[in-house]
Specification:
Elements: H1 2-25, H2 35-38, H3 42-65, H4 69-76, H5 129-138, H6 142-163, H7 173-178, H8 195-219, E1 225-226, E2 231-232, H9 239-251, H10 254-267, E3 275-277, H11 278-296, H12 299-312, E4 326-328, E5 334-335, E6 345-346, H13 347-350, H14 354-364, H15 368-382, E7 393-394, E8 401-403, E9 405-406, H16 413-425, H17 431-447, E10 449-451, E11 457-459, E12 461-463, E13 466-468, E14 470-472, H18 478-484, H19 494-510, E15 521-523, H20 545-557, H21 560-577, E16 578-579, E17 582-583, H22 602-615, E18 627-629, E19 635-637, H23 641-644
Antiparallel strand pairs: 1-2, 3-4, 4-5, 6-7, 7-8, 9-12, 10-11, 12-13, 14-15, 16-17, 18-19
Helix pairs in contact: 1-3, 5-8, 8-9, 8-22, 9-10, 9-11, 9-22, 11-12, 12-14, 14-15, 16-17, 18-19, 18-20, 19-20, 20-21, 20-22
Membrane topology: Single-pass type II membrane protein
Pfam family, one: Glyco_hydro_47
Keywords: Calcium, Disulfide bond, Glycosidase, Hydrolase, Membrane, Metal-binding, Signal-anchor, Transmembrane, Transmembrane helix
Length: 656
C-alpha cells in the first residue's frame, strides 16, 4: 500500500505541475499585438524554461523508474481499461498454498474467501440444468461407467497410434506410456481388498459426486460454488472444472468427467483481459490440463496447456528474469501484488513453476520454459541466504531479498516442495534440485524446527532472526514433503527424516480439535499447544494439507493410524461442512455450532477429496514410482529421459 501511495503522489505532483504551466502561459500573446508590447521578460522566460525542463525530466523519470508499464496505465488510463479477471487475489492471505493457499484461484481468486474482484467473462451456455437433474436422478450403472472410460481410453489409443508416424521432435504419448513402470490406475483402479477401507473410499467418492453435482447445478462455468446462496463465485473461467478433471477420472466418475471435458473444449477462454495470478494459473490450470492429458491422452488438454503456458511467458520480462506475480493474459502486461513489500515477487510463487514448465518443454520441445525456471534457480544459488534460509520476498528488479521473513507456511511453502519434487520428477537426475532441497532442509532444522513444552515438533516462522512460534495449516504439507524425501538424503539420516515427518504430521493432527477440523494457524507460546489463540485464525476453509501428509505417510509406513485420522476428517467434513447444496468452510473450529463461510473451494475437489480417496486406495493407484503431485494435487509423470530417447520404447506394447 505504501508503494501504491507513492505512485499516486507522484501522479498528483505531475498533474499539479502541468496545471501550473498552463496557467502561466494563459497570459501570453494576443492576435495583432506586437511581441514587444506583450512579450515575456528574460527572467520570466528563464523561469518558464526551467519549469518546462523539470517537467520533461519528471516524465522521463517516470517512464524509466516505475517498475512496469501497468503503473503508467493505472495513472493515465481510466479504471475501466484495467479489469480484473480474478485469477488470484491481491490480498496477502491469498498467496499459498501459499498462497497455496487462501488460494481461491488461478483464474479466480486465491485460496481463501476474502479474495477477489472480478470481471466475468462471457461464455456460451453449456449443458442444461434439466439434463443435469435427469442424470442426478437416474444415477448410472457400472457397465455404463466402464463403457464411458473405455471411450476415453480409446482417445489415448488414438494418441498412441498417431505417434507412430511422428518425428523425433514430437512428444510421443505412446513412448510416455511405455516408460511408466505401472498402470496409472492400478490393477483394479486401486480398489482395496479390505471391505471397510473400500466402504470408506466409496464414501469419499460420494462426497466428490455430491460436491460436483451441486457445483454443476448452481455454478456451472463459474470458478467456485457458494453452496448456501446456491450461486457461483466471481469469475467465469471454470476453476472448479479444471481442478476436478483428474479427480473425476481417477474416481471413475466418467459422465461428470466428460461434461468437464466438453466445457474445456467449448468454453475455456484463455484470452481474458484482466488480473491473473501467475502462481494460481500455473498450478491450477496448467497443472490440471497437463495431468488430464497424461492420464487420458486427449490432445485437447495438451493443446490448451501449451497455449496457456505461452501466455505466461511475459511474466518473466524483468531485469532479473524473476517473474512478477500478476499478469494480464490478454495483453501480457505484468505487475507485482500491491501488498507485496516494495514491488517484490513471492518465493512460493516464482518458486512453484518448475514442475509444470519442465513438462511444457517436454510436450512442446521448446526449451524456453525450462530455461525460465532454471534461470530462477541460478539467481537463487548466486545470492546470499541468511543462515542458509530463503526469505519470502525478492525484488525482480535488483535480485536481492526485500525482507528477512522466512516461513514454511504461506509465502514460502511450495518452493521447498518443488525442490524435492523436481528431483524426483527428473528420475533423480536433477542434482541441483537435490542439493538445494537438502541444504534448505538442514537450515530449516537448525533454525525453525522447535519442540513445544508438551513435546510437539513444529516449524516456527523466522523474522530477521526472531522466532514467531506459530505454525500455519499451510505448513502441514511439510510432513509429507519430508517423508517423500527421506530416502534420498544422507543414508544415516533416512530414519531421522521419517521420524521428523511423522512428528510434524502428529502435531498437525493434534491441532484438529474439538471439531476434528483444524484452524488456519496455531501457536506454541503463552501456554498454547497447537491451538489458535486469535479469533482471526480459527477458520477452516476445506484445506488439504493435513490430509495430504496423512496420504504420504500411509504410503511410506502403512501405519493404520493415518487411515483412521483420515476417516476422522471425513466424518468431520460430513458433520460440520456438508450443507444442503455442497460443502462449505467454517469460521470457528472450536465451536460445535458452526457458522459457514458459503464457499466450496476448488482445491477441495482437486486436493482434499483426491488425497482422501488415495488414502483409502491401494498404493498402485497413481503409484509414487511413476507420479509426483504438483502443489494443487495434479499428478505429473516422472520424466525418464533415457527411456523416452530409446528408439525401442516405441515398439513396446502398452496395455496399461
Amino acid at each position: 500500500s505504501d508503494t501504491s501511495a507513492h505512485y499516486k503522489r507522484g501522479a498528483e505532483k505531475a498533474d499539479g505541475g502541468s496545471s501550473g504551466g498552463r496557467s502561466g502561459r494563459s497570459g501570453g500573446g494576443l492576435p495583432g499585438v506586437s511581441a514587444s508590447g506583450m512579450g515575456l521578460r528574460l527572467s520570466q522566460k528563464f523561469v518558464f524554461l526551467l519549469f518546462l525542463s523539470g517537467l520533461v525530466t519528471l516524465c522521463f523519470g517516470a517512464l524509466f523508474f516505475l517498475p512496469d508499464s501497468v503503473r503508467l496505465k493505472r495513472i493515465f488510463l481510466s479504471k475501466t481499461e484495467i479489469q480484473p479477471v480474478t485469477v488470484g487475489s491481491g490480498s496477502e492471505n491469498d498467496v499459498r498454498e501459499h498462497l497455496k493457499r487462501p488460494k481461491e484461484q488461478g483464474m479466480t481468486s486465491a485460496k481463501g474467501e476474502t479474495g477477489t474482484k472480478g470481471k466475468s467473462l462471457s461464455r456460451k451456455p453449456s449443458v442444461s440444468h434439466e439434463a443435469t437433474e435427469e442424470r442426478l436422478a437416474g444415477g448410472k450403472a457400472q457397465e455404463d461407467l466402464t463403457l464411458s472410460r473405455s471411450k476415453t481410453e480409446s482417445a489415448s489409443e488414438r494418441a498412441t497410434s498417431s505417434d507412430r508416424g511422428a518425428n523425433s521432435d514430437t512428444f510421443s504419448y505412446q513412448k510416455f506410456r511405455g516408460c511408466l513402470l505401472k498402470a496409472p490406475l492400478g490393477r483394479d483402479n486401486g480398489k482395496p481388498g479390505d471391505p471397510q477401507t473400500n466402504e470408506r473410499r466409496e464414501k469419499v467418492k460420494e462426497m466428490m459426486k455430491f460436491a460436483w453435482d451441486n457445483y454443476k447445478r448452481y455454478a456451472w462455468g463459474k470458478n467456485e460454488l457458494r453452496p448456501l446462496t446456491r450461486n457461483g463465485h466471481i469469475g467465469n473461467i471454470g476453476a472448479s472444472i479444471i481442478d476436478s478433471l483428474d479427480t473425476l477420472y481417477i474416481m471413475g466418475l466418467m459422465e461428470e468427467y466428460n461434461d468437464a471435458k466438453e466445457w474445456v473444449q467449448t468454453n475455456l477462454d484463455l484470452n481474458s483481459n484482466g488480473e491473473a495470478s501467475l502462481f494460481e494459473v500455473n498450478i491450477r490450470y496448467v497443472g490440471g490440463l497437463l495431468s488430464a492429458y497424461y492420464l487420458t491422452g486427449e490432445e485437447l488438454f495438451k493443446n490448451k496447456a501449451m497455449e496457456l503456458g505461452e501466455k505466461l511467458l511475459p511474466a518473466f520480462n524483468t531485469p532479473t528474469g524473476i517473474p512478477r506475480g500478476v499478469i494480464n493474459l490478454g495483453s501480457g502486461t505484468i505487475w507485482s501484488w500491491g501488498w507485496a513489500s516494495a514491488g517484490s515477487s513471492i518465493l512460493a510463487e516464482f518458486g512453484t513453476l518448475h514442475l509444470e514448465f519442465v513438462h511444457l518443454t517436454e510436450l512442446s520441445n521448446n526449451p524456453v520454459y525450462t530455461e525460465k525456471v532454471m534461470n530462477i534457480r541460478k539467481l537463487l544459488n548466486k545470492i546470499e541466504k541468511p543462515h542458509g534460509l530463503y526469505p519470502n520476498f525478492l525484488s525482480p528488479v535488483s535480485g536481492n531479498w526485500v525482507q528477512h521473513h522466512v516461513s514454511i507456511g504461506g509465502l514460502g511453502d511450495s518452493f521447498y516442495e518443488y525442490l524435492i519434487k523436481s528431483y524426483l520428477m527428473s528420475d533423480k537426475t536433477d542434482d541441483d534440485a537435490k542439493r538445494m532441497y537438502y541444504g534448505a532442509l538442514e537450515a530449516i532444522e537448525a533454525n525453525l524446527v522447535q519442540k513445544s513444552p508438551g513435546g510437539l515438533t513444529y516449524m516456527a516462522e523466522w523474522r530477521g532472526g526472531i522466532l514467531d512460534h506459530k505454525m500455519g495449516h499451510l505448513a502441514c504439507f511439510s510432513g509429507g514433503m519430508i517423508g517423500i524425501g527421506a530416502d534420498d538424503g544422507a543414508p544415516e539420516k533416512r530414519q531421522h527424516y521419517l521420524d521428523l515427518a511423522a512428528e510434524i504430521t502428529h502435531t498437525c493432527h493434534e491441532s484438529y480439535t474439538p471439531t476434528k477440523l483444524g484452524p488456519e494457524a496455531f501457536r506454541f507460546d503463552g501456554g498454547a499447544e497447537a491451538t489458535a489463540t486469535r479469533l482471526s485464525d480459527r477458520y477452516y476453509i476445506l484445506r488439504p494439507e493435513v490430509i495430504e501428509s496423512y496420504m504420504y505417510m500411509w504410503r511410506l509406513t502403512h501405519d493404520p493410524k493415518y487411515r483412521e485420522w483420515g476417516w476422522e476428517a471425513v466424518e468431520a467434513l460430513e458433520q460440520h461442512c456438508r450443507v444442503e447444496s455442497g460443502f462449505s468452510g467454517i469460521r470457528d473450529v472450536y465451536t460445535m455450532t458452526v457458522s459457514h463461510d458459503n464457499m466450496q473451494q476448488s482445491f477441495f475437489l482437486s486436493e482434499t477429496l483426491k488425497y482422501l480417496y488415495l488414502l483409502f486406495s491401494d498404493d498402485d493407484l497413481l503409484p509414487l514410482e511413476d507420479w509426483v503431485f504438483n502443489t494443487e494435487a495434479h499428478p505429473l509423470p516422472i520424466i525418464r529421459k533415457s527411456c523416452l530417447q530409446d528408439e525401442t520404447t516405441q515398439d513396446k506394447t502398452v496395455s496399461k
